[in-house]
């Protein structure tokens, strides 16, 4: 009996030891590589504003169109419930006005609130852990310079056991490592700046890196693409077929700052938000650094790989005003829908009528047989504000049934991607509920 | 300051880049022949030509136009295709309430410009994005064919000498 008790105590102690060991926080300040848009010599508020934009705090902490900057309340629908972002204005009662520097740094880099409770990794402390203390405090100074907004936080709606914040301690023990950015001396300063932007500030991995069964990023699969919140974040590794290895440097930088690269695609959905709120503000030197880093990410095929046919036969056989080369007959319902609702802006040859942003040929959206992003765009429309462009497409979710959206999506995949689309009305019904 | 070439005239305009062309045409320049219908590029009432191509002006930000030339319903009669279309429109009396018709004429003129002798399928493809609540589609189709061939397609309402009149 005594032996059993001793064994139990030992197991508990070992477990507690492992828990504490695995949850140890890196206490170093860390240093950030030079960023052209936020020189160390510049004013802390200007630096903080640039860094807050590069980290895209707005995307999650400001309800679009509300004008309540950083007051939180944006819902995130996850498989296990809905999480709401919190108020990060300097309001004492509802926001973070009473937080000390150390508390703010701990929350951003280790995912622990000022009251000691764990944050959920919907807040990307998993990426921000690499930020330098100086950068985090510049962001805090910027946030505290803005108007306080007395907006109460929204209760999360999570099912058991996900509503138990303490359980995140175990998740962190297994999947999270608190550590600062480690520059690679074997690489150029530009590459290091680009990596810091990609993995820490802009947290590209949070959407583009596939997640495992426990919703943690699979680090061996960096940037290989995944589906998240009903949208596909594409493979952005250097794979020339499935990633962006075949894109030119200017294709990538145009996509990041302008939300569009000719013959490659136009940002929509969450990526349009990232361009609008964050990437378009990057200094061109920093954008170039980000491009340099992305170029070096090892090629991976990823799940559900998309192969682009940039010369889809049916689209090439069409001109701007009339279809040609379709296997579908003229009474195909998808074709009829495209003719009435889409062709006047997108054109039958997929070149885009009013603007190259409406071009479809060569994009990954129309080459994805699952039609994930094109159904989202049809259902919810797009609104993109980027460097030099304000582009908008109306939403058709209320106008067309699930069956019609599926027919239209499959027609578009066939005509512009030269592939057999597999979109079913059930897929559309599911995606309708997302976003 | 933005410079737009509309119907052969250059306009210097102080408008935001993201203002739709339709707003600029109607409210700033004062060309009200182009109509606002749905505002989301789905009805065709706001169609104008950009370098001869039909575009929906309600979703076209003026900042995206650059130095391409704009033609509106006010000037389409000065082009050969537009002139033929307008004449056929009168002869067949296409118009009922008329609200969608400036858009219909702009789309039809663009069609005739690139396809002088359009088939039914060509007409379907070109005109599907233009909606008419009065249902004048039959007369629209007939008028386009008549404009192309010069031969009367259906009952004529405007003729130089009344048909069947006593000699």
Automatic annotation (TrEMBL), chain A:
Record bears the keyword Repeat: yes
For this UniProt record, give its keywords in alphabetical order, as a comma-separated list.
Cell membrane, Heme, Iron, Membrane, Metal-binding, Repeat, Signal
Q: Where found, per UniProt? A: Cell membrane
Q: Which domain of life is it from?
A: Bacteria
Where is it mainly found? Answer: membrane
Matching entries from Pfam families are given as:
Cytochrom_C, Cytochrome_CBB3
Q: Where is the Cytochrome c domain?
A: 43-147, 189-298, 329-416
What start and end residues bound the annotated signal peptide? none
Alphabetical list of PANTHER family matching this protein: ALCOHOL DEHYDROGENASE CYTOCHROME C SUBUNIT, BLL4482 PROTEIN-RELATED
Protein name listed in UniProt:
Cytochrome c
What organism does the record attribute this protein to? Dyella acidiphila
UniProtKB/TrEMBL annotation, chain B:
Keyword Metal-binding on entry:
yes
UniProt-listed InterPro entries: 2Fe-2S-bd, 2Fe-2S-bd_dom_sf, 2Fe-2S_ferredoxin-like_sf, 2Fe-2S_ferredoxin-type, 2Fe2S_fd_BS, Beta-grasp_dom_sf, Diverse_Oxidoreductases
Q: Name one Pfam family in it.
A: Fer2
Alphabetized, the UniProt keywords read: 2Fe-2S, Iron, Iron-sulfur, Metal-binding, Oxidoreductase
- Domain (2Fe-2S ferredoxin-type): give its ranges: 1-76
Q: What is this protein called?
A: (2Fe-2S)-binding protein
């Amino acid at each position: 009996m005594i032996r059993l008790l001793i064994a139990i105590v030992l197991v508990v102690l070992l477990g507690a030891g492992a828990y504490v060991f695995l949850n140890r926080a890196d206490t170093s300040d860390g240093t950030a590589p030079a960023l052209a848009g936020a020189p160390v010599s510049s004013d802390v508020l200007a630096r903080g504003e640039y860094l807050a934009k590069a980290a895209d705090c707005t995307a999650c902490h400001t309800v679009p169109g509300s004008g309540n900057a950083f007051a939180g309340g944006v819902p995130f629908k996850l498989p296990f419930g809905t999480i709401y972002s919190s108020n990060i204005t300097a309001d004492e009662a509802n926001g973070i006005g009473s937080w000390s520097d150390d508390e703010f740094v701990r929350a951003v880099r280790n995912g622990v609130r000022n009251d000691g409770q764990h944050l959920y990794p919907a807040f990307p402390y998993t990426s921000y852990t690499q930020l330098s203390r100086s950068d985090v405090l510049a962001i805090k100074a910027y946030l505290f310079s803005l108007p306080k907004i007395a907006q109460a936080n929204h209760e999360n709606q999570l099912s058991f056991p996900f509503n138990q914040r303490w359980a995140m301690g175990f998740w962190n023990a297994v999947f999270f490592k608190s550590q600062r950015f480690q520059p690679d001396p074997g690489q150029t300063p530009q590459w290091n700046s680009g990596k810091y932007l990609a993995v820490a500030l802009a947290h590209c991995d949070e959407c583009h890196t596939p997640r495992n069964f426990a919703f943690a990023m699979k680090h061996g699969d960096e940037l290989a693409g995944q589906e998240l919140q009903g949208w596909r974040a594409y493979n952005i590794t250097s794979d020339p077929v499935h990633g962006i290895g075949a894109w030119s440097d200017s294709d990538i930088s145009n996509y990041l700052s302008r939300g569009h690269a000719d013959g490659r695609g136009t940002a929509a959905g969450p990526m349009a938000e990232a361009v609008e709120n964050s990437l378009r503000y990057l200094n061109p030197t920093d954008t170039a650094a980000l491009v340099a880093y992305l170029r070096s990410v090892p090629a991976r095929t990823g799940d559900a790989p998309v192969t682009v046919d940039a010369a889809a036969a049916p689209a090439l056989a069409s001109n701007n005003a009339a279809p040609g080369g379709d296997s579908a007959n003229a009474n195909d319902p998808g074709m009829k829908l495209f003719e009435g609702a889409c062709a006047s802006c997108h054109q039958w040859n997929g070149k885009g009528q009013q603007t190259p942003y409406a071009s479809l040929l060569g994009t990954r959206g129309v080459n994805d047989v699952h039609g994930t992003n094109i159904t989202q765009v049809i259902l919810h429309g797009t609104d993109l504000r980027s460097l030099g462009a304000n582009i908008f497409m109306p939403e058709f979710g209320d106008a067309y049934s699930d069956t019609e959206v599926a027919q239209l999506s499959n027609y578009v995949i066939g005509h512009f991607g030269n592939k057999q689309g597999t979109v079913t009305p059930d897929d559309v019904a599911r995606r309708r509920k997302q976003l | 300051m933005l410079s737009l070439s509309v119907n052969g005239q250059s306009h210097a305009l102080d408008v935001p880049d993201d203002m739709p062309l339709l707003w600029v045409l109607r409210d700033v320049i004062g060309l009200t022949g182009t109509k606002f219908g749905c505002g989301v590029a789905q009805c065709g009432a706001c169609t104008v030509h950009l370098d001869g191509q039909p575009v929906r002006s309600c979703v076209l930000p003026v900042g995206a136009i650059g130095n391409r030339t704009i033609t509106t319903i006010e000037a389409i009669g000065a082009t050969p295709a537009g002139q033929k279309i307008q004449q056929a429109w009168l002869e067949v009396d296409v118009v009922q309430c008329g609200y969608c018709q400036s858009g219909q004429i702009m789309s039809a003129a663009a069609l005739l410009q690139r396809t002088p002798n359009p088939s039914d399928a060509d007409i379907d493809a070109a005109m599907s994005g233009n909606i008419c609540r009065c249902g004048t589609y039959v007369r629209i189709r007939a008028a386009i064919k008549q404009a192309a061939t010069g031969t009367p397609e259906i009952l004529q309402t405007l003729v130089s000498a009344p048909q069947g009149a006593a000699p």
